[in-house]
């Protein structure tokens, strides 16, 4: 029996209120399939949605209901997660594999149904089964309700920027090899902007992404770090970026030249095209503070192109090279701290003060000693592992956690997750790595099973996760609804 550790939180579920007569119901079809894609001089089949890499952008408004049928025509099991959507009252639509549903098996389908409630900004969707999100992802943009607007001047253009990682090898083979060896996975061969590596990689220049603007344009860039395993710096040569939102929340605006986004994070910035007409690189590369293991040190670029700028085509005129920005050093934690310390609410936030559950988590990466051999390829004949309060998470095989909870299926999970670390140690000095403490408070007002995990997928694979089980409340509208009839079986 696999062991699962879930703290129980009693809730009072808030009823879902209609968001207005102007809300729409959107229907979409997602076909998961293998698609030949050429990058870095070679063509290989990757898993995509509707043959697109990145996948289709969903543009919705606050209050809209989405009905998305996912047909799995690929050879792997798959689920889709709507990253950042609150899923109030719709836990069966959240998507993490073996947490809220069993995966959609090859040849089968499942329809996700959920409503956007009081959310605006930039989110995204991605596969949430094994490492398929390396290529199965796309933007999810939430516009204000009809009659509402942004809390900043309306931009002339809105451009989604999806940062990603690319491997020349098959991503599932790379995952399987890492799981077998116990070592770190092979580093990626490139980073990408909207699926393209850019000018600094071989066989990539002609497909480098270009974004055309005119002088004095105000542009809203919706930047998403879709990378599988890497935090990333992002900047644009000679331009300042005014940060106005993160993870579908407006913030107090501030101006910077460099962003840092962890995997899964989104940042909305206003860019003013106030430089001399020309060509300017936007660029992204790794932020890796510890550098204990190899990582991809390459740089991806796209081009911010001013209209009426001198010609960049060699066949028409002399070459005009884009300006390359200065990026921070890979381990520049000072720049990261300067950036993150400015992320503040635009107004005073009333945090919960009636604390009914108090949990202290010590989270981190570690090494497990094992006998020398092909399955002990971590440092000094070890295997990498990750834990929360000394517990490594293991996924169930025969059902999902939400189904096990709803149907009272025994022997799937336990509820003895330790509320404090069983072993007390110097939490700020462990491994001499940079350690931080965070005060995180939330009201458990949505019944279901919700996965808390590291969004660096190699860490999740090593066990860096746990689940919150939020029980039903006393009212009629405070209970988990029955699962959809087409919920996939394991």
From TrEMBL:
- Signal peptide range: 1-23
Q: Which PANTHER family match?
A: LACCASE, MULTI-COPPER OXIDASE
Going by the UniProt record, its keywords in alphabetical order are: Apoplast, Copper, Glycoprotein, Lignin degradation, Metal-binding, Oxidoreductase, Repeat, Secreted, Signal
Tell me which CDD domains the record gives: CuRO_1_LCC_plant, CuRO_2_LCC_plant
User: Where is the Plastocyanin-like domain positioned along the sequence?
Assistant: 32-145, 159-307, 438-473
Molecular function terms, GO-annotated: copper ion binding; hydroquinone:oxygen oxidoreductase activity
Describe how the cofactor binds: Binds 4 Cu cations per monomer.
Protein name as it appears in the record: Laccase
Location comes to: Secreted, Extracellular space, Apoplast
| EC number from the UniProt entry | 1.10.3.2
Reaction catalyzed: 4 hydroquinone + O2 = 4 benzosemiquinone + 2 H2O
Q: What class of enzyme is it?
A: oxidoreductase
- According to its UniProt record, which protein family does this protein belong to? Belongs to the multicopper oxidase family.
Q: Which GO terms describe its biological process?
A: lignin catabolic process
């Amino acid at each position: 029996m696999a062991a699962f550790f879930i703290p129980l939180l009693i809730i009072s579920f808030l009823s879902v209120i209609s968001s207005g007569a102007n809300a729409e119901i959107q229907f979409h079809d997602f076909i998961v399939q293998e698609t030949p894609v050429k990058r870095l001089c070679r063509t290989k089949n990757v898993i995509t949605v509707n043959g697109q890499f990145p996948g289709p952008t969903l543009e919705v408004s606050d209050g809209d209901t989405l009905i998305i049928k996912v047909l799995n025509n690929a050879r792997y099991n798959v689920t889709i997660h709507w990253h950042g959507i609150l899923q109030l009252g719709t836990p069966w639509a959240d998507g993490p594999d073996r947490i809220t549903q069993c995966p959609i098996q090859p040849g089968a389908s499942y329809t996700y149904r959920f409503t956007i409630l009081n959310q605006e900004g930039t989110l995204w969707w991605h596969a949430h089964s094994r490492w398929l999100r390396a290529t199965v992802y796309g933007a999810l943009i939430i516009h204000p309700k009809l009659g509402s607007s942004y809390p900043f001047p309306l931009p002339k253009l809105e451009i989604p920027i999806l940062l990603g990682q690319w491997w020349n090898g098959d991503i599932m083979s790379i995952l399987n090899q890492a799981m077998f060896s116990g070592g770190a996975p092979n580093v990626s061969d490139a980073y990408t902007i909207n699926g393209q590596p850019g000018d600094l990689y071989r066989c990539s220049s002609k497909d480098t992404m270009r974004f055309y603007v005119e002088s004095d344009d105000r542009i809203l860039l919706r930047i998403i770090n879709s990378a599988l395993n890497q935090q990333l710096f992002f900047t644009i040569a000679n331009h300042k970026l005014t940060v106005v939102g993160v993870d579908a929340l407006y913030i107090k605006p501030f101006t910077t030249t460099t962003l840092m986004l962890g995997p899964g994070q989104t940042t909305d910035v206003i860019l003013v095209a106030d430089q001399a007409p020309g060509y300017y690189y936007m660029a992204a590369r790794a932020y890796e503070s510890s550098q204990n293991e190899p990582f991809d040190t390459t740089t991806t670029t796209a081009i911010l192109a001013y209209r009426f700028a001198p010609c960049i085509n060699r066949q028409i005129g002399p070459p005009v090279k884009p300006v390359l920005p200065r990026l921070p050093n890979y381990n520049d934690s000072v720049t990261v701290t300067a950036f993150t310390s400015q992320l503040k609410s635009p107004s005073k936030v009333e945090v919960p003060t009636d604390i009914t559950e108090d949990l202290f988590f010590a989270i981190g990466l570690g090494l497990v000693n094992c006998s020398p051999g092909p399955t002990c390829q971590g440092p000094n004949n070890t295997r990498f592992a990750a834990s929360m309060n000394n517990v490594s998470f293991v996924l169930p095989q025969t059902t999902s956690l939400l189904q096990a909870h709803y149907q009272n299926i025994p022997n799937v999970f336990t509820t003895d997750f330790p509320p404090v670390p069983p072993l007390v140690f110097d939490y700020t000095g462990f491994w001499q790595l940079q350690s931080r403490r965070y005060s995180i408070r939330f009201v458990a007002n949505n019944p279901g099973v919700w996965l808390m995990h590291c969004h660096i997928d190699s860490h999740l694979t090593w066990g860096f996760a746990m689940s919150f089980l939020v029980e039903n409340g006393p009212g009629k509208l405070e209970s988990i609804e029955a699962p959809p009839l087409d919920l996939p079986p394991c």
